[in-house]
Amino acid sequence: MNTWIHRSFIMLSMLGIGLLSGASVYAHGGEDHGDAGKTPPPAIAITPRATAQSEDFELVAVLDESQPKNRRLLITVDRFKTNEPVSGAKLEIDAGGQNTSATEDNPGVYVASFAALNKLTAGSKLPLTISLETNDTSDLLSADLEIPAAPLNEAESRHRNTGYAAWGVGAAFILAAIIVLIARRRHPKKGAQ
């Protein structure tokens, strides 16, 4: 039975070593893999936006954060069927109980600013109700402007992953110790009382 104990111990030790070696394999930089001539794609920051559509209109509202203390809402309005910009429209916006009107900046692009935009934080949502009126028709559109939660930085993400590996290795060694103790109690050495 001694061979069974030794085989179990060796197998569990190999499992522990395998778990330990796997914990140190992470993506990292600083090595040339033949990508030196390639230009990385540009980083595109996704800005918070809201979309709405009806039978007549399609609307996209984007939060302009170029001036953090004076945020603006850029609203693009197109005709739904033809995709042509809607110029000369009158836009009234209800944002969480605060009413304001938008002014046309470019053909089909309207700008509005109000205090609720400056109070938005990561992970929040602002309901928008937009009244749109042109010479020939009018419509009421609603959408939610969602501010995404802040992403984890690389150090926080790596720290979370290494915790699982450490717990796995610890559990493997505890399991090996329990098996060795049980085997010794079942099969005591000859001559021991």
TrEMBL record:
Q: Where are the transmembrane segments?
A: 164-183
Question: Can you name this protein?
Answer: Uncharacterized protein
Give the signal sequence positions.
1-27
Q: Which UniProt keywords apply?
A: Membrane, Signal, Transmembrane, Transmembrane helix
